[in-house]
Amino acid sequence: MEYLYLIPIAFIAGLVDAAVGGGGLIQIPGLFAMLPHEAPSALLGSNKFASIWGTTSAAFNYLRRIRIPWKVILPTAATAFIGSLIGARITDLLPSDLIRPLIIALLAIMLIYTWRRPTLGHVDANRELSRKDVAMGMLLGALIGFYDGFFGPGTGSFLVFLFVRFFHFDFLRATTCAKVVNVTTNAAALVFFIPAKLVLFSYAIPMAIANIAGAQVGSQLALRGGNTWIRRLFLALAVVLLAKLIYQQWLV
């Protein structure tokens, strides 16, 4: 029963994450909903393992078509790696009763955020990036990396928003950059999760395969301009999962 639910969820999470970010908002609640008796840190580790494969495959698709400023993105990815490694080491110290309400709150916030910004990043300023931008990227990388290692869901969406806000990228360029940084944060977190035996490989490997398939579809749709219906799908699924988690947390 768990596989019948988690594999489609991983496919959809990979599809949504590749196109608009926020795949963790679908995949993490799905893991918590279907495996409520597992340790929260093991569920977060399994999510990272599945996600990194989909994110990497999406990044390769985007990089074939979209030019990105490596002089900013590589330092950003480096600080994100360090921040994620630190964040991941903290997750095992938190109890389930604390983590699930945080996921619920974040899911609600991201629903509102996505609903109110349907045209985020449609115009690219194409300006020359400065040393100040490099420093800003490193700061943002450290903060978002720590968040991704510690908690995770919505990291891709946060990165896209921040790249649009501070560097004035369009949606596709910001998404491509976000995927590169997101690969490094997932890798850093797994440096902690795998040796600590906090990845449920019996679930994570099939979910990784489904995540790759979803990421291939999602990145191709995004490159072809198919963002509108994916965003609607994300909102609909997030509402369902939010309701399920609220029920499990306070009504069971």
From TrEMBL:
Asked if Transport is a keyword of the record, the answer is: yes
Instruction: Tell me which species this is from.
Output: Chitinibacter fontanus
Write down what this protein is called: Probable membrane transporter protein
Sequence intervals crossing the membrane? 6-26, 68-86, 98-115, 136-167, 187-212, 233-250
Family, per entry: Belongs to the 4-toluene sulfonate uptake permease (TSUP) (TC 2.A.102) family.
Which InterPro entries does this one have?
TM_pro_TauE-like, TSUP
Q: Which GO terms describe its cellular component?
A: plasma membrane
> Which PANTHER family does the entry link to?
MEMBRANE TRANSPORTER PROTEIN YFCA-RELATED (PTHR30269:SF0), TRANSMEMBRANE PROTEIN YFCA (PTHR30269)
* Compartments reported by the entry: Cell membrane
List the Pfam families: TauE
Keywords per UniProt? Cell membrane, Membrane, Transmembrane, Transmembrane helix, Transport
